[in-house]
Write a structure and sequence with these properties.
This protein has about 170 residues and is α+β, with helices and mostly antiparallel strands. It has helices at about 20-25, 30, 130-160; strands spanning about 5-15, 45-50, 60-70, 70-85, 90-100, 105-115, 115-125. About 35% of the residues are buried.
């Protein structure tokens, strides 16, 4: 586990029980869907998310993301390092990812019952890329990119909750 000097987080209360929210967020493909859509924050590129046979739903499960952005091949492997159903899930990059704006990271979500709903906190702790142009991009845009990422995950959770019976 690494040391991560930067942190971003968002939170909201959703109108669903923690077990419903956890079930929806436990799918890494759903949670990373924003990376598979072309957007300005993705510089027009996309990343594809793949999981191992454990589908990102167990400690040790590996998730791989690959893609092309601005003509460059990017990739990362991450592993689930903590999974407590209905309460918390955390995953962390393995090795040094090849990304443009952030480097290695640890991220996750926390769920706390709140009345008839659930308070959801989505967070990321991250480093800048190790050197060169990506490190400069990280200094300039890392905070914005990390904030965008956690906001998109929170939005995905809210949309998924709206689409299911509570």
């Amino acid at each position: 586990m690494g040391t991560y000097p930067f942190h971003r987080e968002v939170s909201a209360t959703l109108a669903a029980r923690p077990e419903v929210v956890f079930r929806l967020l436990d799918d890494p493909v759903r949670l990373a869907a924003h990376m598979g859509q072309r957007s300005a924050m993705m510089a027009g590129g996309t990343m594809r998310t793949e999981t191992d046979e454990l589908r990102g739903k167990a400690v040790g499960s590996v998730i791989r993301m690959t893609g092309r952005i601005l003509g460059m091949s990017l990739w990362l492997d991450e592993a689930v390092v903590e999974r407590t159903p209905q309460h918390r899930k955390t995953w962390e990059t393995l090795g040094e990812p090849r990304l443009l704006v952030i480097g290695g990271y640890r991220m996750g979500f926390d769920l706390v019952p709140s009345g008839r709903g659930t308070h959801l906190r989505v967070w990321i702790d991250y480093k800048l890329p190790p050197a060169g142009g990506p490190r400069l991009l990280g200094w300039l845009f890392g905070r914005f990119y990390a904030g965008w990422c956690v906001r998109k995950m929170l939005q995905a959770a809210a949309q998924a909750v709206d689409g299911v019976a509570r």
